[in-house]
Structure formats: C-alpha cells, structure tokens
Amino acid sequence: MSPEQAGLVVDGIEVRYGGLVAVQGVSLTAPEGRITGLIGPNGAGKTTIFNALSGLVAPFAGSVALFGADIIRLSPAARAQRGLGRTFQRMELFDSLTVFDNVALGREAGLAGRNPLRHLIGRPGDRDAAQQAAQEALRLCGLDDLAGRRAGSLSTGQRRLVELARTVAGDFRILLLDEPSSGLDAAETKRFGEILRRIVTDTGAGILLVEHDMALVMEVCQYLYVIDFGRPIFEGTPSEVAGSDIVRAAYLGTEAVEVA
User: Fold this and answer.
1) Which range (93-97, 115-119, 158-162, 187-191) has the least confidence?
2) What are the start-end ranges of the H helices in the chain?
3) CA atoms in the 13 A half-sphere facing the CB of 128
4) Cα–Cα distance for residue pair 10/131, rounded to 1 Å
5) Contacts of 249 (CB under 8 A, 6+ apart)
6) β-strand 20-30 against 8-17: which pairing, if any?
7) Residue closest to 138 by CA, chosen among 82, 178, 181, 198
8) What is the DSSP string of 131-166?
9) Taking a C-beta distance cutoff of 8 angstroms, is the pair 29, 9 a contact?
C-alpha cells in the first residue's frame, strides 16, 4: 500500500500538557474504504489523539500524514481542505435552521475554507454544489424526510445523524467520528452502524471511529487499535481484540498482562 492509498498515517505521536504525558507512542493507519476503530477505557486519551490529528493540539513528537503528505504543521482548516473531517462528542447544530441547511453548511464551510469573504460572497456554483452535497448526504444518512424540519425539534438520535450528514456533505475522504452513537438507544445504534457502512461503501471514504459501544465497534470496524493510559496496548481484527487477554485486562481492571 502506497502512502497515498494508506489515507491517514500516524507514527509515534506524543502529546504533553506541561509535564504530563497524555499520549505516547501511538501509531495507526486509517485508509479509505475501511472503518477503523480506536478504543480504550474512559480517560485513555482517545479524544486527545483526535485533537492532535485534527490540528487542535500540537504533538510533542511523532508525525501525522494524510495521503502521503505531512500535515503536522497545518491548521485545522488546512487539514479539512485536504480531506480530513471530524465530529465532536458534543453536538453543535444550529437549532433555528432546517436539517437541510445544517447539512449544507458542511459543504459551504469546506468551500469557503479560511477566506472569510467566501462565507459572505460565494463563487458561482458554490451554492449549487452545497445543495447537491447536502441532498446526497441526507440520502446516505436516511434523512430525506426530515430535510425541512428545524434541527431544534429533533430527537437525540436524529440530531446525531444530522451531524454525521453535515460531515459527509463536507466531501472529506477521512472522517474522524468521536463517540457518534452517544445517547442513542439500541435500535438507533444498529441503524447508525448500517449508515456508517453505507457511507464507506457508497463514497469510498475512510472512517476512524472512537466509540464506547463495543457491540457497534465489533459490528462495523474491520480493524481496531486499543490504547490505555495514552499508550497503545493492542491492535488487530475485532475477533483478535475480543480474544486478547491484554484488552480484557484494560477494560475489566484485572491484573495487567505483559505486552509481548
């Protein structure tokens, strides 16, 4: 696999807050066309890793490459323009806008980039591109029937899907999804997993998923990276992870197992 085909490649990143080492020695690959999982107990450093990958935190050491290009010094906006999108644990929708308009904003923001004037005066065709992207994202996420509803009137499950659709509309090639099923019931979570697979199949995008719902993780992910206390402890297929004594020890709090 060439660097370009590898998608997002992280090599030995370390994140420090003052004298505290929050993340150390984490390496992973999230290619296009695959759902890759990043899992670990609460406080393991998963969101910190996402912050480092999306440019909100500067790693102390290590490298981050996107389609073969080093992005470690790029701003979040520049990384987004190169194809890296992200959702956050806390949903940020515009409640007074319709579902359609919320989703279209994902594409409009990507087209405008860091140029504030393009948020006010778009180029010819920008609006059409945003509307087409929103329509396709709504279809992928099964939200066509809700397009005209105000976002503030939606349930938690519906809002999660709108947030996902907005990210999909941004035309990103790698999506970082941070706890996207939080607040969903079992039926909504199952549907959410089906939608994630549909997005990858229909668009060819890659997903790096941080998620606590292990049933969802095991169902949709093709490869998993496991961290604990900010350090990698295991990686492998879902079946390999499920059978790992190291992973069970990290999650169940049993006696630590030495890493081979």
Assistant:
1) 115-119
2) 3-6, 46-54, 76-81, 99-112, 116-120, 126-140, 156-169, 186-203, 214-220, 238-242, 245-252
3) 3
4) 34
5) 255, 256, 257
6) antiparallel
7) 198
8) HHHHHHHHHHTT-GGGTTSBGGGS-HHHHHHHHHHH
9) yes
Token pair 């790992």 is found at 244
CA 40 to chain centroid: 16
Strand ordering across the sheet containing 8-17: 20-30, 8-17, 61-66, 69-70
Which residue type, as a one-letter code, is found at position 190? K
pLDDT at 34: 97
Given a contact cutoff of 8 angstroms between Cβ atoms, the answer to whether 189 and 213 are in contact is yes
Dihedral sign for Cα 174, 179, 180, 181, please. Answer: positive
Measured CA to CA, the distance from residue 40 to residue 46 in angstroms comes to 7
Burial 179-208 (b: 16+ CB within 10 A, else e): bbbeebeeebbeebbebbeebbeebebbbb
**Bridge partners, 174 (sequence order):** 84, 206
| Domains defined along the chain, listed by start | 1-83+173-184+197-260 (3.40.50.300), 89-171 (3.40.50.300)
Of the candidates 2, 65, 30, 52, the residue with the CA atom closest to the CA atom of residue 224: 30
Instruction: Count other Cβ atoms within 10 Å, centred on residue 244.
Output: 19
In whole angstroms, what is the distance from residue 14 CA to residue 256 CA?
Answer: 23
pTM attached to this predicted model:
0.88
| Nearest residue to 53 (alpha-carbon basis) of 91, 15, 16 | 15
* pLDDT value of position 123: 57
| 27, containing H or E segment | strand 20-30
| Strand order from edge to edge, sheet including 223-228 | 84-86, 174-178, 206-210, 35-39, 223-228, 231-236
Report pLDDT digits (tens) over 179-205: 999 888 999 999 999 999 999 999 999
